[in-house]
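ingest -> fold -> write
write: protein_1
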Amino acid sequence: MRCVKCRNLDTKVIDSRLVEDGRSIRRRRECEACGARFTTFERVEFISFMVTKSDGRKDVYDRSKVQRSLMKAFNKRTVDHAKIEQAINELENEWAQNKKGITSKRIGKDILSKLRDIDEVAYIRYASIYNNFDSAERFAEFIREELG
């Protein structure tokens, strides 16, 4: 593992801990050249699965796309990042069970369902993009229906 400060390849692990209910390992590392300390995470890579887009194209699932979309929804919100990671892990486990792949619409709906339990504002932000409202009135109607 390269040092984040000096890019040296010689680093040593000074502490390891299980996180995310044992699904990941958090490691504290120290560079043997400059002494900088940094944290790395190891996670089992999920079996890749295909995502069918609304136009019929198929792509390999990309976790970073889900993470980016969630970070946009949580922009300037106080959020426990562990909750977001846990939600993504749970969804990926569910999606990977489907041997035929998953649709992008299902991914969006499942993310919305998780967001509703974590943060209402992030839920509304994500829904506004996912549902592509054509007017402010339709958006307000959605909020009234969903949040009462």
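write: protein_2
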Amino acid sequence: MGSCCSTADADAQPCPKCGHVGPIVGAAPVRPHLAEAVDGDWQHCANTQCQVIYHLGADTVDADSVITQVGFKATDKPTPVCFCFAHTADALGEDLAEHEGVSVIKAEIKVAVADSLCACEHLNPSGKCCLADVHRTLKSFAQPTPA
């Protein structure tokens, strides 16, 4: 897998709203939401309870100002899981149901990532490869719902 699956977080700073220390993603994934975003070590706040999506110092981009839903912070369906190839949690669930519990979508994503056809570092709000999120989402469909 390519560079989309690695980040350097040694200089990561806490979110100014909640204090969570998230990954450094740079300016590329921020610019679709904030065109005037300055270059720098923008970070993604992965705290699901926090409204901040990205931050650099005191500058923030919050959930109300992003142009797309942010996977695990999404409050309305469809919930995006794979930003490069536009797969949602609902689509992954339907894929499992249609293929007897085997995800064709995950296999297609893995091939595309191996062929360097993804742009996770620019499209995924976390700046990381989506395969872990895809796997986690598929696993959640396989888990029995607690009564």
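write: annotation protein_2
The longest strand covers residues 52-56.
Strands lie at 43-44, 52-56, 59-62, 80-82, 87-88.
pipeline exit 0
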